[in-house]
């Protein structure tokens, strides 16, 4: 089974930056698209960003486009999410996940099969 572990979350002031990392182990990583989702208290999980297996194609939710950047390092089985210009509404637990498909880069939770435990991002005013 694939194991995903997120790290890099923390407390940051509005306008600040964080870099989230997701380490993969126990299975195939490099041939699958990867995604980031987040869930704020009392709200449903929402799509944040996704990246193709090669890292050349990226997709973002409108709410984060222009501020967040997803990337991956297949040699080290890592996927990253750079969070810039953070806003209080970005506060959430952020999860990385592996796509079920090797070729399609989805934005829905059911399209992903393995998930990490999440890392907390808190943005203060």
Notable traits:
seven-stranded mixed sheet, 125 residues, four-stranded antiparallel sheet, mainly beta, 50% strand, single chain
How would you summarize the topology of this molecule?
Layout: E1 3-7, E2 10-13, E3 18-25, E4 34-39, E5 46-51, E6 58-60, E7 68-73, E8 78-83, E9 92-99, E10 112-115, E11 119-124
Parallel strand pairs: 2-11
Antiparallel strand pairs: 1-3, 3-8, 4-5, 4-9, 5-6, 7-8, 9-10, 9-11
Please describe what this structure looks like.
The protein is mostly beta strands and 125 residues long. 0% of the residues lie in helices and 50% in strands. It has no helices and eleven strands. It has strands at residues 3-7, 10-13, 18-25, 34-39, 46-51, 58-60, 68-73, 78-83, 92-99, 112-115, 119-124. Strands 2, 4, 5, 6, 9, 10 and 11 form a seven-stranded mixed beta sheet that branches. Strands 1-3-8-7 form a four-stranded antiparallel beta sheet, with no helix packed on it. Strand 5 (46-51) and strand 6 (58-60) form a beta hairpin. The protein is globular, with a radius of gyration of 13 Å. The termini are far apart. The mean pLDDT is 95.
Order of helices and strands: EEEEEEEEEEE
What's the end-to-end separation, in Å? Answer: 40 Å
Query: Helical segment tally?
Result: 0
Please state the overall shape, judged from the principal axes of the Cα atoms.
globular
- Radius of gyration of CA atoms, rounded to a whole number: 13 Å
Strand content: over 45%
Instruction: Report the helical percentage.
Output: under 10%
Number of strands: 11
Q: The biggest beta sheet, please?
A: 7 strands, mixed
Low-confidence parts, pLDDT < 50 over ≥5 residues? none
Name the structural class.
Answer: mainly beta
Mean pLDDT: 95
């Amino acid at each position: 089974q694939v194991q995903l572990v997120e790290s890099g979350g923390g407390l940051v002031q509005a306008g600040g930056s964080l870099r989230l990392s997701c380490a993969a182990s126990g299975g195939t990583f490099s041939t699958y698209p990867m995604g980031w989702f987040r869930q704020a208290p009392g709200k449903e999980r929402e799509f944040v960003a996704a990246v193709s297996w090669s890292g050349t194609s990226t997709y973002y939710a409108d709410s984060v486009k222009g501020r967040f950047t997803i990337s991956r390092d297949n040699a080290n089985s890592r996927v990253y999410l750079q969070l810039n210009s953070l806003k209080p509404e970005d506060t959430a637990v952020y999860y990385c996940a592996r796509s079920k498909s090797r070729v399609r880069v989805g934005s829905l939770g059911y399209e992903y099969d393995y998930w990490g435990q999440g890392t907390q991002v808190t943005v203060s005013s």
